[in-house]
Amino acid sequence: MRLERERGLTLIELMIALMMSGILIAALFRTFIVQHKTYTVQEQVVDMHQNVRVAIHRMMSEIRMAGFGNVDKILSLVGGVNGFTQVITPNNNTITIVGGFSQVKRDNGEPILINSVGKDPLTGKDTLTLNYATDKFDGEKHHFVSTGGLESNKVTSRNENVLVLDLPLKLVPKTGAPIFKIEAITYGLGVSDGKKLLQRNQNTGGGAFAVAENIEDLQFEYLDANGNPTGIPTNIRMVKVTVTARTDRADPDLGGGDGYRRRQIASNIYIRNMGTYF
What we know:
Helices cover 21% and strands 34% of the residues. It is of the alpha+beta class. The protein has one domain (46-270). Strands 1, 2, 3, 4, 5, 6, 7, 8, 9 and 10 form a 10-stranded antiparallel sheet that branches. A hairpin with a 3-residue loop joins β5 and β6.
């Protein structure tokens, strides 16, 4: 009995199988590359949107609070607040605002409150006795306080939890009233590693720090109570902020332009704390 010899693949069949496998692998690889690129682009777009939201939110909150604490009293002092003598110092690309933006608290988050008002035995100046000692007002550029958000003053010295004030109090704060640190804050653009970013400077000598990266452009417009453009600080009642953000990296496959995706947000911010209360 003759056994038929087993028949294997011919060279042509093997080449066809290899070619079909190569086509399949190439298609799968291309699909992977496209999906990975899509994911990367979406991730960059999400980061861009997040950056511009952070930039707008932080600025909106503090610009809206400009003047809080009845700051005109200390703005009239020589040198104002660290060199700024207006609630808003306007510029097309930067803005400086003065106000009590942060309530003074302990490290654990508990608020530091006023216990009583007295007189300094050496100078006869008004004093605030607090319920807890704080170093928030130590240092030449940190001497500005608002009592209860109603009256501003300058701290000349501190002895533990007792603050000696430079100006006489016109309003005696109630026991348990909060205190706010008055600051002059500047927002503007800076550059780090060749990329533009939004910066916030407290003007106390520590320099500016980044708020949001890849912020390409920042513009401010200033309007009076009637909605007309104005450059007079005391007439400003609304600030229009326009922020332009871009993706971190360019997309070479994006048609037209330089390959960067961009997002622009504009917001109108109404100023609520202009002028004095007394």
